Amino acid sequence: LTCDVGSKIVTGSTIPSPLVMSAQGVCWRHEGDRLAPLERGWAFTMRETVCLGTDRDVRGLLDRGALHAENLARDLGLEAELCVASDPFFAPTSRGRAALQRIKGLKHELVVRFPDGGALAIASFNDHERFFGEAFDIMLEGGGHASSGCVAYGIERWLLAVLAAFTLASAGAT
Q1: Could you tell me the maximum CA-CA distance found in the chain, to the nearest angstrom?
Q2: What is the CA radius of gyration of the chain?
């Protein structure tokens, strides 16, 4: 289930607020020469929770999701921070969309810092505003198009972050 698939399920519907859906599956994304095993694959496992509802419903999901992810990372001993981000799949002709996404703070990522200075986003928190609500004609019971947002966890990325943290911790302990 991805944001667009979740929206397609309720195309042309009037929904209660909020409507929350969650699934885990394989996501396919080709980003040219940016392929890096576990870090940035063309196929990767993603756990995603999608919220359709009012702006407040979506903001609540994103805030709770970010807090949960930050707490989980801390409990696992990972050094991570929440950062403003933009989607890497915007084509060069859509740079304005990526810039607007950053300016409006619509996408945040939980980024793990590695001792070698490397960084890796392991979760993302995306506010789509009313994009999918308008594109798929999803209405709220109280009137108006639904807002949407999603929280996504890159499973292989979390695995890499934990393995790196514990491998380094074990190497330092011996």
Answers
A1: 63
A2: 17
